[in-house]
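sry for the spam today, last one i promise. C-alpha cells for design, 409 residues
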C-alpha cells in the first residue's frame, strides 16, 4: 500500500457506493469518518534503558453495534493504516450482518524481535491505557498480524484485573481460556470456502484447481489446509522466509505445524513476490497490504484472486487486473470468516455457553454463503464488480443504521 493512502482508498470505495445508493454527500462523509482515534505511548523496558513505542486504537463506527477489530504488531503500523483497517472492519461486519461496528488497533514494532515477556508487557500496557474505551459492549479487540491467542489471553487477564471478569471483552482467546473451538481456523476456512464458491460460480471445477498462497501465518495456513481438503491443488506457498513451488501439489497436512517455510525441504524454492506471478488458477494474497500494485500488476496471471489479507491490491492494480479479466473477491467478503468466528465466540462468552466445533463450522459456512450470494446478487443488480457490490451492501446497511439512530439530528 502506498504510504499514507490506505484510508483514502477505502473511502473512495465508500463514496462510490454512496453514489450508487444516492446517499447525500454529508451522510457519506459522516459514515466514512472515524468516531474516535486514540494514540498512546508504550514504554518498553530493556535491561539498560526504556524504548518508547507508539500504539493505536481507532474506533471507526458503532452505528451497528460495539466496535470490533484486531490488534496488529508490525513495524509498518501507522495511523493511516490503522484508520483504513478500522474502517474495513465496519464494512466487513456490516457485509456479513453481525451486530458490530468497526475498529482496529496496532503497535509499531517488529514482533520478531520481541521476547514473549516483552509482548506481554506491551499488550498489558496497551490494555491499561485504553481500558476506558474498551469493553464487551464498547469495543472488542481480536488477533491480527503479529498477535495471537496468547496475546488475547494477556489482554483478557489485564482487563479482568482492572474491570472484573468479562471474557467477552476480547475474542480469539485460547480454547482453554474461554476461546471458541473453530475461531482459530475461521479466517482461513472462510477464505477456502469462498474460493470454492467462486470457482463454482464461474463454472470452474474445484477439484484439481491450482492455488498459490502468499502468507503462511494463521490465515494462509488454514486457507491452504481447507483448500486441499476441498480438493484443490495448492502448488505454491510463501512467507517472510521465502517460498516453495511444486507443480504436482504440496501436501499441506505434512507441513502444517512448521514454524515457518524455511523449515520445509524443497528443490524448488521461490521468492514471496515471485509467488504472486506464477501460473495458477487461484491466487490468495494472505499476508501484507499493497502487495499487488503498479509494479507487478501486469505480471499477475491468476484468473481468480481471493483477498485473504486486508487491502492486498491497490486501487490502480484492482482496475487494471479486472480489465485483464481477473475475478477479484474483496477482503471484506473473502476474509470475513475471522470476525464471523469472533462473533460466535463473543455470543458464547456472553451466554456462558459453548458450542461444539461442528456447530461453529456449520454456522460459519452457512453465513458466509449468505454473504457470498448477496454480493453476487448485488453485483448483477447494479452491473458492477464484486468489490463495488460488497461496498454497496455494507454502506447501505451502515447508512440505514446511522440514519435510524437519529445521528443526523
Ligand atoms: N483481524 C481480523 C480481521 O481483520 C479479525 C478481527 C476480529 O475478529 O475482530 O478481520
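last one done:
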Amino acid at each position: 500500500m502506498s504510504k499514507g493512502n490506505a484510508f483514502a482508498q477505502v473511502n473512495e470505495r465508500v463514496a462510490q457506493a454512496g453514489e450508487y445508493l444516492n446517499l447525500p454527500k454529508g451522510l457519506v462523509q459522516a459514515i466514512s469518518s472515524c468516531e474516535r482515534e486514540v494514540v498512546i505511548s508504550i514504554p518498553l523496558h530493556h535491561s539498560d534503558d526504556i524504548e518508547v513505542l507508539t500504539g493505536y486504537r481507532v474506533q471507526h463506527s458503532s452505528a451497528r453495534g460495539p466496535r470490533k477489530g484486531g490488534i496488529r504488531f508490525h513495524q509498518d503500523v501507522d495511523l493511516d493504516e490503522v484508520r483504513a483497517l478500522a474502517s474495513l472492519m465496519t464494512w466487513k461486519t456490516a457485509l456479513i450482518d453481525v451486530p458490530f461496528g468497526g475498529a482496529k488497533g496496532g503497535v509499531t514494532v517488529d514482533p520478531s524481535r520481541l521476547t514473549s515477556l516483552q509482548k506481554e508487557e506491551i499488550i498489558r500496557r496497551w490494555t491499561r491505557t485504553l481500558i476506558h474505551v474498551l469493553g464487551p459492549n464498547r469495543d472488542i479487540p481480536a488477533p491480527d498480524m503479529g498477535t495471537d491467542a496468547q496475546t488475547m489471553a494477556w489482554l483478557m487477564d489485564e482487563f479482568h484485573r482492572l474491570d472484573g471478569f468479562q471474557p467477552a471483552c476480547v475474542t480469539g482467546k485460547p480454547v482453554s481460556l474461554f476461546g471458541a473451538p473453530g475461531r482459530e481456523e475461521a479466517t482461513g476456512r472462510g477464505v477456502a470456502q469462498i474460493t470454492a464458491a467462486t470457482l463454482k460460480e464461474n463454472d470452474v471445477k474445484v477439484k484439481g484447481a491450482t492455488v498459490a498462497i502468499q502468507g503462511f501465518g494463521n490465515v494462509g495456513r488454514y486457507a491452504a489446509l481447507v483448500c486441499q481438503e476441498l480438493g484443490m491443488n495448492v502448488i505454491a506457498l510463501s512467507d517472510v522466509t521465502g517460498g516453495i513451488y511444486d507443480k504436482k501439489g504440496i501436501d499441506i497436512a505434512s507441513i502444517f505445524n512448521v514454524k515457518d517455510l524455511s523449515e520445509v525441504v524443497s528443490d524448488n524454492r521461490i521468492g514471496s513476490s515471485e509467488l504472486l506471478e506464477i501460473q495458477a488458477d487461484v491466487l490468495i494474497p494472505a499476508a501484507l497490504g499493497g502487495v499487488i500494485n503498479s509494479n507487478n500488476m501486469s505480471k499477475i496471471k491468476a484468473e481468480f484472486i481471493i483477498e485473504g489479507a486486508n487491502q492486498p491490491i491497490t486501487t490502480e492494480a484492482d482496475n487494471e487486473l479486472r480489465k485483464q479479466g481477473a475475478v477479484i473477491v474483496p477482503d471484506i467478503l473473502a476474509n470475513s470468516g475471522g470476525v464471523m468466528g469472533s462473533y460466535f465466540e463473543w455470543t458464547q462468552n456472553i451466554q456462558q455457553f459453548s458450542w461444539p466445533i461442528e456447530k461453529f463450522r456449520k454456522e460459519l459456512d452457512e453465513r458466509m454463503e449468505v454473504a457470498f450470494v448477496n454480493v453476487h446478487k448485488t453485483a448483477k443488480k447494479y452491473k458492477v464488480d464484486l468489490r463495488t457490490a460488497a461496498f454497496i451492501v455494507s454502506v447501505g446497511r451502515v447508512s440505514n443504521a446511522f440514519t435510524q439512530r437519529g445521528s443526523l439530528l
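Residues 68-70, 142, 144, 171, 310, 335, 338-339, 342 surround glutamic acid (CB under 6 Å). ok im logging off now
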